[in-house]
């Protein structure tokens, strides 16, 4: 079963003096692209957190955030003046550089920024590190479930599109012999219009056979059929197949393009266009697969 790279997870844990909220979301990416927002109190756990995320999620553009709220009676909230002053100066400099108007309500803007408030209880409680990792584990677990659910939807979509291409491939067969006969007639008609033109009929037949063999699409049909089956087999082999499915879809595209270039028949060209439309939808969504 394939998994999507898109997902979201959230977990909340309350301690006697603090509430910990962990949020993690991911989108598609060729590699693991991880950005984290971790409060200073948990900085010592950052490497462990990053390692756990990398091990569990493997690929995707991942945004990870930890929010803490002090809820104990003894928690005395204060303005974190050095941090606020730093934000104030950066915003002024950004305003001048980017020619953007300054905020009309400075306090509302500054107090919403990370770590602009501090409390007297910003120290780790007993076993808080373990509790934090358990909360992170729950959030990642939710994201993994989300990815699995999205993967089920993607697999249904891919199966439908592959079946559609396979059906279109069968529609090609009735036109193949008709196409050859039309080519022969067209060439004979062209030759007959040339006055006083004589030609070696044996040589003509040899050239005709050679020409028709160049337009033969049996190999392309066979390879495309194999690619379609291989795509389905790869989906069933488990997660982590996104790149492989991308390569297979590229090979399918090559065979469909060759069918189009060899078609030399209006109805076959229409079938090829429909195949390309189905394949393009596969290529768009395969980018989301783990």
Question: What does the model show?
Answer:
The protein is α+β, with helices and mostly antiparallel strands and 290 residues long. The chain has helices at residues 46-57, 81-98, 106-111, 128-192, 201-214, 218-236, 242-263, 266-286; strands at 7-14, 18-27, 32-37, 60-70, 77-79, 117-119. β1 (7-14) and β2 (18-27) form a beta hairpin. α6 (218-236) packs antiparallel against α7. The mean pLDDT is 86.
Helical proportion, percent range: 55-70%
Structural class: alpha+beta
What string gives the helices and strands in order?
EEEHEEHHEHHHHH
- What's the multimeric state? single chain
Q: Return residue spans where pLDDT drops below 50 for at least 5 consecutive residues.
A: none
Q: How is the main sheet built? A: 4 strands, mixed
What's the number of extended β-strand segments? 6
The shape is: elongated
**Strand order, largest beta sheet:** 1-2-4-3
Mean of residue pLDDT? Answer: 86
Q: Beta-sheet strand percentage? A: 5-15%
> What is the terminal-to-terminal distance?
11 Å
What is the rounded Rg? Answer: 31 Å
> Number of DSSP helices?
8
Keywords: Endonuclease, Hydrolase, Nuclease
GO molecular function: hydrolase activity; RNA endonuclease activity
Family: Belongs to the YicC/YloC family.
Cofactor: a divalent metal cation
How do the helices and strands line up, and which of them pair or pack?
Elements: E1 7-14, E2 18-27, E3 32-37, H1 46-57, E4 60-70, E5 77-79, H2 81-98, H3 106-111, E6 117-119, H4 128-192, H5 201-214, H6 218-236, H7 242-263, H8 266-286
Parallel strand pairs: 3-4
Antiparallel strand pairs: 1-2, 2-4, 5-6
